[in-house]
Amino acid sequence: MEDEDVARIARSARVIAVVGLSPNEARPSWGVARYLQSQGFRIIPVNPGHAGKTLLGETVYADLSQIPADARVDMVDIFRRSEAVPQIVDEALAHLPDLKVIWTQLGVIHDAAAEKARSRGVTVVQNRCPKIEFPRFL
What angle do CA 75, 57, 103 make, to 5 degrees? Predict the structure, then answer.
């Protein structure tokens, strides 16, 4: 992943579905989502254990297929184990018509799922954190 790709994502993404967003403020997912929100991104929490509740002022959805189409999600940030990535990518490709980016957090890598998304024209960033990468470009 080149810096120009990260810069483009940081400047163009607007709505980010955070898969695995925890309500626990001590968890990395909460800190990253809160940071992104503070930078003007709309965060859409995805966590089946908290569906219907509110996190960071936004309704929590059970999975990506439940997010209304008019939300216009253009990036999915994944805070789940690598084994969960293929199902999440398939769901994102099937249900998010505005999808431009799949981003997996530090330690989360699934090359086959990444290649599938890339073959559909989606930019994929693996094993990186937008809270670390974005500040250089915002």
Answer: 20
pTM of the complete model: 0.97
Residue tagged 């809270």 (tokens): 131
3-state SS assignment for residue 55: strand
pLDDT tens profile 75-130: 999 999 999 999 999 999 999 999 999 999 999 999 999 999 999 999 999 999 99
Apex CA 65: angle with CA 103 and CA 85, to 5°? 35
Q: What is the DSSP letter of 120?
A: T
Strand pairing category for 75-78 and 58-59: unpaired
**Which pair of tokens denotes residue 121?**
């024209």
CA nearest 110: which of 91, 87, 130? Answer: 87
Do residues 132 and 5 make contact, with C-beta atoms less than 8 angstroms apart? no
Domains located in the chain, CATH noted: 3-136 (3.40.50.720)
